[in-house]
Amino acid sequence: MGLHAEFLEAARDAALEAGALLSRDYHRLGEVRFKGEINLVTATDQASQDLIFGRLSARFPGHDFLAEEGLARVGGSAFRWVFDPLDGTTNFAHRFPVFCVSIALEGEGRLVCGVVHNPMSGETFWAEAGEGAWLDGRRIRVSSVDDLVRSLVATGFSYDIRESRANMAEHDRVLLKAQGVRRCGSAALDLCGVACGRFDGFWELKLNPWDTAAGALLVAEAGGRVTDFEGRPADIYRPEVVASNGRIHEALIGVLRAR
Which residues pair with 139 in a beta bridge? Predict the structure, then answer.
């Protein structure tokens, strides 16, 4: 571990504890509310967020926080925790076992560590800037596939898909150029899939910082590339991302930008 080992340890501890909460609630789903026509939130989202915020704010009381369920504590700190207490809420609510806890820390505008924990598989991914990416203690790397037609890629769709139709045209174009496209319902886990070589690439539109912060660092530390659709270095505060093993990146961007 490097300079940020204390932060990484705290993030892992919080992610594992929150994951235990998600696992406990998985088969006894409580209240489900809708934030939009198809965008829902469960009582477990809020309980997980409260747990993570409580643990991290107790250890680092001066830090700022940003999370999905309305949490935005800004005090001018150089450090900001960006997390999603339950990425894949729709899957969770339907008892489809693909969801996770995603926690990242920014330091002076730079991602310094990130953790993604999948409570159903028991897998925990983590990365620290300059120290590589890891899965349950094993160093991980992106895939070596160098041809888009041989690539398995992942994507997702925004909650306003019925009005915006965002990503439908891009999906169809990539589907005809890649070996396959998967839509799993958790951007954080999709990015982890790129980091460990299960996917060769991933793209999505209309994402939020908590969707991508930890996963983007994992891909970068695993030797991959993360940009926007123009090929500029990724910024978690821009709502689009393209991540890949680097070898298929230009080809994937080219298909996404084609008209």
Answer: 134
Classify residue 194 as exposed, middle or buried by CB count within 10 Å of its CB (0-12, 13-18, 19+).
Answer: buried
Is 14 in the same domain as 130?
yes
For every residue of 83-145, DSSP letters joined together read EEEEETHHHHHTT-S--EEEEEEEETTEEEEEEEEETTTTEEEEEETTS-EEETTEE------
Say if residue 41 is in the same domain as residue 161: no
CATH number for the domain that contains residue 72: 3.30.540.10
User: Both tokens of residue 205?
Assistant: 């539109």
User: 210 and 92: one domain?
Assistant: no
Residue 169 has pLDDT above 80, yes or no: yes
pTM: 0.94
Range of the domain at 156: 148-257
SS3 246: coil
Instruction: Give the type of residue at 113.
Output: C
The answer on 185 and 99 residing in a single domain is: no
Domain count, the chain: 2
Question: What value does the mean pLDDT of the chain take?
Answer: 93
Which 3 state secondary structure label does DSSP give 193? helix
Classified as helix, coil or strand, 177 is coil
